[in-house]
Description:
The chain is an alpha/beta fold. It has helices spanning 2-6, 10-17, 35-47, 53-63, 69-78, 151-165, 178-181, 183-192, 208-222, 230-246, 258-280, and strands spanning 111-120, 126-134, 140-146, 171-174, 195-198.
Amino acid sequence: xxxxxxxxxxxxxxxxxxxxxxxxxxxxxxxxxxxxxxxxxxxxxxxxxxxxxxxxxxxxxxxxxxxxxxxxxxxxxxxxxxxxxxxxxxxxxxxxxxxxxxxxxxxxxxxxxxxxxxxxxxxxxxxxxxxxxxxxxxxxxxxxxxxxxxxxxxxxxxxxxxxxxxxxxxxxxxxxxxxxxxxxxxxxxxxxxxxxxxxxxxxxxxxxxxxxxxxxxxxxxxxxxxxxxxxxxxxxxxxxxxxxxxxxxxxxxxxxxxxxxxxxxxxxxxxxxxxxxxxxx
Length: 281
C-alpha cells in the first residue's frame, strides 16, 4: 500500500490517492454463493494442473453450473490459481575429462568422434547408423547399421576397433545421447584408458568432423539409395565406407583419400622416430 511504502499517515495517503478513509477499514467478504464454486475450482486445479480457467469453465458448464466465463476468470484469479510453468526434463549429461570445444587431434587414434544418424528401409522401418571417425585422418573407422543400437552395441563396436587398431584412442568425442552417457560406455572408457569429451547439449558445432561426415553419408548414400532390407543397407553402407576411405579425395587432406593420408602420416612418423634414434646415438 502507498501508506506503508512511503511511511505516510493514513489521512495523507488517502488524500493523495483521492479515496475516503473508510475504504481502509472495509474487509471484502466473498459472496456466500461463490464458496462452493471456489472449492470446485480449487479441486479442478489440483486434478488438472495443466488446465486454465477456460477449460475449467467448459468443464463446469458440462457439470451443470450456470455461469459465464468472466465470472470463472475472476474467481480463478482471486484464488491464485494458475497453470504452472512447464519445466524441461533434466537430461543425463556425460562427465568430460577434457573440454570438448578445445580438444584438437594432432595424430591418428588420438580422438575418435561418435555420432548417430537415422534413415529407413522401403517398408518404413527405422535404420540407425553409428559413425566412428578418426578426427585427424578423417577415416571412417566404423559405420554400424542396425534397426536398434543401444549402449552395449556401441561398446561392442568400440571393442572391435580397439582390437583392430591395436589400442584405444586418447579421447572419445560425442554428444549426450542416452547411448553415449550410459554406464556401459563410461565403464569402457575407464577400463580402456580412453578419456571422454562430451559436447555441450545442443552444440553440434563442437563435434564438427563427424557432423560433416554424416552430411556426406546423407548426400552421397542415404539420399541416393532406397534400401529394400536391412541386409542390403548394411552391405551398401560398408561398400560406401570402403570407397570413402580408399578412393574418395578429401579437401581437408590435400585431396588425398583418408586411408592414403593415414598411411603417409605413419611413414613420416616412423622416419622421424628413426632419425631421432640415430641422433641420440
